[in-house]
Structure formats: structure tokens, C-alpha cells
Specification:
The chain is α+β, with helices and mostly antiparallel strands. The chain folds into two domains: 285 residues, Vaccinia Virus protein VP39 (Rossmann fold, 3-Layer(aba) Sandwich); 98 residues, Sandwich (Jelly Rolls), CATH 2.60.120.10. The chain is 31% helix and 23% strand. It has eleven helices and 17 strands. It binds S-adenosylmethionine (SAM). S-adenosylmethionine binds next to helix 1.
Length: 406
């Protein structure tokens, strides 16, 4: 078996250990045999680099299996799909262990070396599928859709597709081609789910040990995507992302790690992705938040009016950006602070002066002039401010706009 094929036995070992644990999340009675010694040995090497005990359950792989079990059953039942396609099926045994609705055909696609190992074991264990199971021996970097349709898949009917534990092993051009082919064969109204890693997993110091181990085993991880929603939207999929540890994946106290919000940049992450293609590409792109938004201060989202001045706010890209326009004679303590019952502004500002000049005057006596063309950071220390000279003062504020003059 090729090293990449053998990764399926590593995942089977993880499923065997979950199955044999107290209160398992799922039961896969075939997993131990399908994993074999090779699977358990790969499991042990990948566990040890993360400091985990060799035969302890792997929370990520257990949660992934359970999440995708539930997601695909729910999609099939609510969507009325009669076709399921498991791409890179490996030692997946959902054809045997899930209760599929009557009349369902399930296609398992993977390479020949994988099925040469898997099929005799299932036969020996007298495994009996709960659906019409069809094996498709094909390379997913080649023309796999022809093999799929030859096996009886009907591209005119929508289907549910799984891509579990695959994309990280492929080169980017192969991922693109695979997703193009998937879009071509998935009728409008189809559903898909899978898991992906982000780019930081491939470069982070935290994952170096794992990456080196996989490289040494001959099955390196090669591909990650920063923002799965917009990546798959290009292929017409309207997707939702779930992270292990999110409330929906809290199957008991399984995920013992902090869940760092997605807004925190540069974190290595693994995502579960589910989506459907019931809209066109443009709508999917827009839903993924990848459209360009243009706004103008002439049409602000909010205006704060004061004597001798206005402060307009536009909200964009998660930021509140303000434009201050003050007439000569404007002074913060008189025209803003008085109405608030305050004599000093305590808002931190980062901005740029567009025209005119004004001061930032601190209690220690420092009076700083802010002049046209200057970028400023005014700390949250109490300060007053006034316009200098006879020219109106205009500045743009990138920080502090939401709290200002309020
Ligand atoms: N989806 C299964 C699971 O989660 O248990 C197997 C995941 S295993 C980590 C990766 C699988 O991807 C292997 O079964 C391997 O054979 C398959 N795979 C990788 N590259 C492939 C390719 N070019 N064509 C077909 N299958 C491929």
C-alpha cells in the first residue's frame, strides 16, 4: 500500500480506539481489522509528536467522525438524497454502520491499493452494507468523475459528498481540479462536507513535529486554505465552517483545548466545512463575504452633530472609521465635553489629518499640533483639543471612532 493510502489505516486505528473506549462517540466494529499493525503504528507516531499517549483516543479524529456522521445523515434525511459519494473513502465504513434511508446508493472512491486491502477484510468480517454500496477505484487527481458515472452515479440528481481527510495531502492544482470536477458532477441542490487545514498549519512552529513525521512517513501535508467559505464559494458552494470545540461539536468534554476565535490571526487551525450548491457562484461568493464594498463619507452609517462640527462614521471590514470636520473656533471641552459633562476627552485615537490643524492638549501642559498630512496616535490620557487658525480642520479616525463624541 502507498504511504498516502496507509493514512486511511491510521484514521481507522483512531476509530478503533474510540470504539473500544468508555462511552464511545460512535461504534466502528471493523476499524481494528482495517487499521492492522500499520495503522496502529502510524497512529502511535503521529500521537507521540503532539505529546499524547500512543493509545489514547485522538479527540480531533473522534470528533471529526462523529460530526460528519451526524451531518451527512441529517443532510440525506432532510435533503432526500438517494446518492452519497465518499471521496477518498479509505477505511470509511459508513456504508455499513450508519442507518441510511431505503433506496440509497453509496459510492466509495479511492485508489486501488486501498480497496485491495479493504475489500478482503470486509468480506472476511461478513460486513453487510445498509445501502447499495459501490466501490469506485479511481485517482482523484485524474478523471475520477468518469469512473463514478460508470459505476452508476447519476449527475443529473443532487447528491451528498464527503471529503474527509483528503485535501491537505494534495497539491493546490490538484485541489482546484478536484473541486472543478466536483462542481461539474454535483447537480444544483447537492451538499458536501469535509475538513481542511489552514495555511498556518503548514508553517507554524506548533505543527513542525507533526509535519516532519508525516513527511518521514511519505505522506506530507501540502495544502491549506485561509478562509474555507470564500475558497469553496469560487466553485459554487455556499459553506459554513465549524471548528472542533465549537458548541456544536461538544460531545461531552472531548475538546480540552481553548477555542481561539477566528478573528485572531496567524493561528494554525482545522475546520469542518459543510455546504450546498443551491445558489450560483456569484451568490455563494457574496454570502462568503468576498465581495468588495465601497462606501463614502457623504453617505455615512452614522453622523454625530455638535456645535461647530460633525463626526461621520462608516462601518467597513469590521471597523468603524470616522471623519471629523470642525470649524474654526471649535473646542472639544466646550462643544463636545460640555454636553457629556466632561472637561477632557479620554478616547484613544489613531488617524490622519486631511486639512487644517488642531491640538491635542494634555493636563501636563503639552500641546501637540496635528497638521495636514500627519498620521497621529493620541493616547487615552485625558486631553482637550481645539482648531488652530481660520481653516476648517478635517481628520480621518481609524481607532476610537465608535466611542468618540458619545
Ligand atoms: N476519508 C477517510 C477517513 O477519513 O477515514 C480516509 C482519509 S485518509 C487520511 C486519506 C485518503 O485519501 C486515503 O484513503 C488515500 O488513499 C486517499 N487519497 C489520497 N490521494 C488520493 C488520490 N489522488 N486519489 C484517490 N484517493 C486519494
Amino acid at each position: 500500500m502507498t504511504p498516502i493510502g496507509a493514512t486511511s489505516r491510521w484514521i481507522a486505528a483512531a476509530r478503533a480506539l474510540e470504539t473500544e473506549s468508555d462511552e464511545p462517540l460512535f461504534v466502528d466494529p471493523f476499524a481494528r481489522d482495517l487499521a492492522g499493525d500499520v495503522g496502529f503504528s502510524m497512529f502511535a507516531s503521529t500521537q507521540s509528536v503532539s505529546g499524547a499517549v500512543g493509545n489514547a483516543r485522538n479527540p480531533y479524529l473522534s470528533i471529526r467522525t462523529k460530526f460528519l456522521d451526524d451531518a451527512i445523515l441529517q443532510a440525506v434525511r432532510s435533503g432526500g438524497y438517494t446518492q452519497v459519494v465518499i471521496l477518498a473513502a479509505g477505511m470509511d465504513t459508513r456504508a455499513f454502520r450508519l442507518q441510511w434511508p431505503a433506496g440509497l446508493t453509496l459510492f466509495e472512491v479511492d485508489r486501488d491499493d486501498v480497496f485491495s486491502w479493504k475489500e478482503p477484510i470486509l468480506e472476511r468480517l461478513k460486513a453487510s452494507p445498509t445501502c447499495d454500496r459501490r466501490v469506485v477505484r479511481a485517482d482523484l487527481t485524474g478523471d475520477w468523475t468518469a469512473a463514478l458515472t460508470s459505476a452508476g452515479f447519476d449527475p443529473s440528481r443532487p447528491a451528498a459528498f464527503l471529503l474527509e481527510g483528503l485535501l491537505m495531502y494534495l497539491r493546490e492544482q490538484d485541489v482546484e481540479r478536484l473541486l472543478e470536477q466536483l462542481s461539474a458532477v454535483a447537480a444544483r441542490g447537492s451538499w458536501f462536507a469535509g475538513d481542511v487545514i489552514n495555511d498556518q498549519v503548514l508553517t507554524s512552529a506548533f505543527t513542525t513535529g507533526m509535519l516532519k513525521t508525516l513527511e518521514a512517513l511519505g505522506c506530507p501535508w501540502r495544502f491549506g486554505m485561509a478562509h474555507p467559505e470564500s475558497y469553496v464559494a469560487r466553485f459554487g458552494w455556499n459553506a459554513t465552517v465549524t471548528m472542533p470545540g465549537d458548541p456544536v461539536t461538544q460531545y461531552g468534554p472531548r475538546w480540552a483545548f481553548p477555542v481561539v476565535p477566528r478573528a485572531v490571526p496567524n493561528m494554525p487551525r482545522m475546520f469542518f466545512v459543510t455546504g450546498s450548491n443551491d445558489t450560483d457562484v456569484a451568490t455563494a461568493m457574496s454570502a462568503a463575504g468576498v465581495e468588495v464594498i465601497l462606501k463614502r463619507f457623504e453617505e455615512p452609517d452614522e453622523v454625530r452633530v455638535m456645535v461647530k462640527g460633525t463626526f461621520e462614521i462608516v462601518r467597513l471590514g469590521g471597523m468603524a472609521i470616522g471623519r471629523a470636520t470642525y470649524e474654526p473656533g471649535w473646542k472639544w471641552s466646550e462643544h463636545v465635553g460640555a454636553a457629556l459633562g466632561q472637561s477632557r476627552c479620554t478616547v484613544e485615537h489613531v488617524g490622519m489629518v486631511v486639512s487644517g490643524s488642531a491640538t491635542a492638549a494634555f493636563d501636563d501642559g503639552r500641546v501637540i499640533e496635528l497638521r495636514a498630512g500627519e498620521l497621529f496616535h493620541v493616547p487615552a490620557a485625558p486631553h482637550d483639543s481645539w482648531v488652530i487658525g481660520n481653516e476648517p480642520y478635517v481628520s480621518i479616525h481609524f481607532l476610537g471612532a465608535d466611542r468618540y463624541a458619545k
